[in-house]
Design goal:
- By secondary structure, the protein is an all-alpha fold.
- The chain contains 1 helix and no strands.
- The chain has one helix at about 5-20.
């Protein structure tokens, strides 16, 4: 189970990947 804070980090990483 992921915590809400971890999910936010994952979302930011995905956004950064899409930015490239």
């Amino acid at each position: 189970m992921y915590t809400k804070e971890e999910l936010k980090v994952v979302e930011v990483m995905i956004i950064r990947v899409k930015a490239y």
